[in-house]
Amino acid sequence: MSAYAKEENIRTLDFAQVLFDSKGIYLKGKSGDGKYPSLQGYEAMGKCAVEVLGGG
Q1: Do the beta carbons of residue 29 and residue 37 sit within 8 Å?
Q2: Half-sphere exposure of residue 18: CA atoms within 13 angstroms, side-chain side
Q3: Host domain of residue 39
Q4: Tens of pLDDT along 1-56?
Q5: d(CA 5, CA 40)
Q6: Among 34, 24, 30, which Cα is nearest to 48's?
Q7: CA 24/CA 9 separation, integer angstroms
Q8: Residues 26/35, Cβ–Cβ less than 8 Å
Q9: What DSSP character marks residue 33?
Q10: Could you tell me the sign of the dihedral formed by the alpha carbons of 41, 45, 51, 55, in that order?
Q11: How many domains does the chain have?
């Protein structure tokens, strides 16, 4: 999908970069159970979205 999005100039949100380390493990504090984002994880996702999409 990433290749298709790039090819078609479709903007994407890569939340993995703000949630996971290079081994695919949640960064410290970004998940409480290792399965789903924590409040801190969702905040990181929100900040990422604002950076990519623009806004306040």
Answers
A1: no
A2: 18
A3: 2-53
A4: 889 999 999 999 999 999 999 999 999 999 999 999 999 999 999 999 999 998 76
A5: 28
A6: 30
A7: 26
A8: no
A9: S
A10: negative
A11: 1
Looking at this protein, which amino acid is placed at residue 8?
E
Instruction: At 6, list the tokens.
Output: 């790039």
What per-residue confidence (pLDDT) applies to 2? 85
CA 52-15-3 angle, to 5 degrees, is 80
pTM for this entry: 0.82
In angstroms, the first-to-last Cα distance of the chain is 28
Q: Judging by beta carbons within 10 Å of its beta carbon (0-12, 13-18, 19+), is residue 10 exposed, middle or buried?
A: exposed
Residue type, 19: L
Rounded Cα distance between 29 and 6, Å, is 31
